[in-house]
Design goal:
The protein has 13 helices and eight strands. The chain is an alpha/beta fold and 308 residues long. The longest helix has 29 residues. The N and C termini lie far apart (59 Å).
């Protein structure tokens, strides 16, 4: 099949290569010219504007977006609305908030344009092992694009999960679960590392991946990371979040569904970004006030907070 790929970052660029290897024709566009040139070197047809990309496609056109959620996606869709025609298909493979997806699908449907959301998991390994695709949208449009889904996904790695928004909803919950898994592994390995025993963490990770109930691909990756850097001394303990963990927690609140593990794993990420927590200082100050408990004095005691 012939399609346009908008966004050629770590995910989009590798998806182009996998699609080309599967016999598809890809017109590639990104705001960064070097990314377009790299895709062209792999065999894609380069496009240097959305207009050029759309004109290079054959109706019904398929345009796949692999760009950041929020404003970038909104702006791109605003441009595509004036370029695409009834019957064309847009696939949002980014991490859009599912309610935004439902709204966008309705807006596109009013123009006769079919809108699919493809929650995509696989990271930098997707090129080699394939991407897990959670697809929402009209069944007929999904069936038309299916050869592309099957090329991108490993065997049994693609599923039409429901109507518009369902794909991004399932991917949101997937990422929320991921937050909890990562935090559990992190806490366990920190306990092992901090114990009085001189433990071989790589050996333990490898051991647990043979018959243990906690075996997983994540644990395999953890063992690989520890093999390269046993003390993780080259890494700062600063953990970002993509936004989907937040959305999962917000959804649990809307639904009244308890999700304490996911919520606390999100809070742990927030805490990882604080070099000096005001809240922790406040607790230390209160313990000193009511119980005379000792406090550790800051190196620059007496300096202002820096706030006006």
């Amino acid at each position: 099949m012939r399609l346009g790929m908008v966004g050629l970052g770590k995910m989009g660029g590798n998806m182009v290569v996998r699609l080309l290897g599967g016999g598809h024709e890809v017109v590639a566009y990104a705001r960064t010219r070097s990314s377009v040139e790299k895709a062209a070197q792999e065999g894609a047809e380069p496009a240097h504007s959305l207009q050029q990309l759309v004109h290079a496609l054959v109706p019904p056109r398929i345009v796949w977006l692999m760009i950041p959620a929020g404003a970038p996606t909104e702006e791109t869709l605003g441009t595509l609305k004036g370029l695409l025609a009834p019957g064309d298909i847009v696939v949002d493979g980014g991490n859009s908030e599912y309610r935004d997806t439902i709204r966008r699908a309705q807006e596109m449907e009013a123009l006769g344009i079919r809108y699919l959301d493809a929650g995509t998991s696989g990271g930098i390994w997707g090129l080699k092992v394939g991407y897990c695709l959670m697809v929402g949208g009209d069944a007929a449009a999904v069936a038309y694009v299916e050869p592309i889904f099957r090329t991108l996904a490993p065997e049994n790695g693609y599923l039409h999960v429901g109507p518009a928004g369902a794909g991004h909803f399932v991917k949101m919950v997937h990422n929320g679960i991921e937050y909890g898994l990562l935090e559990a592994y992190a806490e366990g390995f920190e306990i092992l590392e901090d114990s009085k025993f001189d433990l071989d963490l790589v050996g333990i990770a490898d051991l647990w991946n043979h018959g243990s109930v906690v075996r997983s691909w994540l644990l395999e990756l953890g063992a690989d990371a520890l093999r390269r850097d046993p003390n993780l001394g080259s890494i700062e303990g600063f953990v970002e979040d993509s936004g989907e963990g937040r959305w999962t927690v917000e959804e649990s609140i809307r639904l009244g569904v308890p999700a304490p593990v996911i919520a606390l794993s999100l809070m742990a990420r927030f805490r990882s970004r604080q070099t000096s927590s005001f809240g922790a200082k406040f607790i230390a100050a209160l313990r000193n006030e009511f119980g005379g408990h000792a406090v550790r004095r800051a190196a620059h005691h007496g300096a202002g907070s820096g706030k006006a």
